[in-house]
Design a protein that fits this description.
- It is a single chain.
- The protein is α+β, with helices and mostly antiparallel strands and 278 residues long.
- It contains 5 helices and 12 strands.
- It folds into 2 domains: 203 residues, no CATH class; 42 residues, no CATH class.
- The chain has a 5-stranded mixed β-sheet, sandwiched between helices. Strands 3-10-9 form a 3-stranded antiparallel β-sheet. It has a two-stranded antiparallel ribbon with strand order 1-2.
- Strand 9 and strand 10 form a beta hairpin.
- The chain starts with 37 loop residues before the first strand and ends with a strand.
Length: 278
C-alpha cells in the first residue's frame, strides 16, 4: 500500500512585497479640508514697474509713481474627488482553523499596505505628472542621455524660480538602472539613516533621489522632478474599523474608507518637471 505522507500547515503567511509610501517627500499638507469638501485658494496679481517721474508725473498720470492699477483676485477651487472604500469578512472558524493566520487586524494591515497605499500613491503621482508645468516631448532615455535630461529638468525649475532646497527626483527601478550605467552620474550615497528609512536612496546635483515601483506611476513614466510646495495631497478621512460578530456574520467584519486627492497649484506648476518616455 502507498504511504500517506503527512501534511503540515505552519503558522506563517507568505506576504507579498509592498513598498512604503514616499508621497510625503514630494507633496505638502498646507491646507485643511476640515468641515468642507472644497477649498478655494486666492491668486492675486501684481503691478508692473514704472520709471519714476522725478520732474513730475507722466502725461495722463497724476502720480509720479506711474498709473495706479487695481489688482485682480481670482480663485482656484480644490474639491476632494476620491472617496474610496473596501470591506471583507473573516469567518470565526476560518480564523481558528488557519491557526489564527486570518486574524482581522493583520488582514486589515495587509489591505492598507498592499491595496490602499499603492492606490493613493498612484493617484497622487498621476496628478503631478498630468499637471506638471514643464512637460517636454516623450523621448527614449538611455545611459548616454539620462544625465543631460535630468539637468534640463533642474534648469526648467531654475527658470521657473522654484526653490533650490527641497527638490526631489522621482524615478523607477528602470530609470535608476540607466543612472547607474551613466558615466557622467556620480550620486552621493552618504544619506542619513532617517532619510533612508523614508525612501531616499541618494542625492544628485542637489536633488533628493527617490525610487518607487513602476506600478505606482503612469505608463510611459521616465522621471519626475518635483518641489513639495507645488502639490497639495490631503487625506481628509482615513477610517478603518473591525466589527466583532456583527449581525449576520459569525466572525469579523472589516470596513475601510479613505477620502483623499492631489492638487497642483496653478502658480506653482513650474515646480514640476515630468519627462515621459517613448
Amino acid at each position: 500500500m502507498p504511504i500517506e505522507l503527512a501534511t503540515q500547515y505552519l503558522p506563517y503567511v507568505d506576504e507579498m512585497f509592498a513598498a512604503e509610501s514616499k508621497k510625503s517627500l514630494l507633496t505638502n499638507q498646507d491646507f485643511s479640508w476640515d468641515g468642507a469638501a472644497t477649498v478655494k485658494v486666492y491668486k492675486i496679481s501684481t503691478a508692473a514697474m514704472n520709471d519714476y517721474g522725478r520732474s513730475g508725473p507722466a502725461q495722463g498720470n497724476w502720480s509720479r509713481y506711474g498709473e495706479v492699477l487695481g489688482l485682480d483676485a481670482s480663485t482656484e477651487t480644490l474639491t476632494l474627488s476620491r472617496d474610496r472604500s473596501f470591506t471583507f469578512a473573516i469567518d470565526k472558524l476560518d480564523e481558528d482553523e488557519t491557526k489564527r493566520q486570518m486574524q482581522a487586524a493583520s488582514a486589515l494591515a495587509r489591505q492598507l499596505r498592499e491595496v490602499v497605499m499603492p492606490e493613493v500613491d498612484a493617484w497622487v503621482y498621476a496628478q503631478m505628472c498630468a499637471r506638471a508645468g514643464n512637460k517636454p516631448a516623450a523621448k527614449a532615455l538611455t545611459a548616454g542621455n539620462i544625465y543631460a535630461e535630468i539637468i534640463k529638468g533642474s534648469n526648467a525649475l531654475d527658470n521657473a524660480e522654484a526653490p533650490d532646497a527641497g527638490r526631489v527626483l522621482l524615478i523607477t527601478p528602470d530609470t535608476y538602472l540607466l543612472m547607474k550605467q551613466a558615466k557622467d552620474i556620480v550620486m552621493e550615497t552618504d544619506i542619513g539613516t532617517d532619510m533612508r528609512l523614508r525612501g531616499v536612496i541618494s542625492n544628485l546635483d542637489g536633488l533628493t533621489v527617490i525610487r518607487v515601483p513602476a506600478n505606482r506611476v503612469p505608463e510611459g513614466f521616465g522621471f519626475l522632478i518635483a518641489h513639495p510646495v507645488a502639490t497639495v495631497a490631503p487625506t481628509k478621512l482615513a477610517d478603518y474599523k473591525i466589527h466583532q460578530n456583527p449581525p449576520g456574520i459569525s466572525g469579523s467584519l472589516v470596513e475601510g474608507r479613505v477620502n483623499y486627492d492631489a492638487f497642483v497649484l496653478g502658480n506653482k506648476a513650474g515646480g514640476l518637471y515630468y519627462q515621459a518616455i517613448q
